[in-house]
Amino acid sequence: MVSEMMAIAGWGWHIETALHVLRMILGGVFDAHPGLQIVIGHMGETLPFMIQRVDAMPQSMTKLKKPVSAYLRENVHYTFSGFNFLPTFIDLLLEVGVERIMFSTDHPYRSMAEGRAFLDQLPVSPADREKIAHLNADRLFRL
């Protein structure tokens, strides 16, 4: 059971999703479609924490128009998805900025009340909380 959990929600899901996003970037998807925007969950599926590491690949090697981090900051949006952990949020905020972060829960795996309580206690301004709560999603999805 432990192996199964590690293969999915415990670890594997997050690493596989991050790898797919990196493959999209390295495959030139965002160079070919610079306006394309994607949304990933779980505070970035480990990518914000690894930004410095993925930028270690020289552009001459990747043949990309920009460093990998630029695509993570310009073409990807990030949701909480039940990762209600303040240090992870702070890292995400510092790496990509408040305009790229959107509130979400991981229903039915995590409760809406728990997610809302996390949102309410974030150490951000009221204006930034509104961006995270709904304004960023309103803008992205043209709501």
Look up the CATH topology: TIM Barrel
Estimated share of beta-strand residues = 5-15%
The CATH level-2 architecture is identified as Alpha-Beta Barrel
Biggest β-sheet, characterized? Answer: 3 strands, parallel
What is the level 1 CATH name?
Answer: Alpha Beta
Sketch the topology as an H/E string, one letter per element. Answer: HHHEHHHEHEHH
Strand order, sheet with most strands:
1-2-3
Summarize the structure.
The protein has 143 residues and is mainly alpha-helical. Helices cover 54% and strands 6% of the residues.
What do these coordinates show?
Helices cover 54% and strands 6% of the residues. The chain is mainly alpha-helical and 143 residues long. It has one domain: TIM Barrel. The protein has a three-stranded parallel sheet. Strand 2, helix 7 and strand 3 form a beta-alpha-beta unit. The mean pLDDT is 95.
Characteristic key phrases:
143 residues, mainly alpha, TIM Barrel, 9 helices
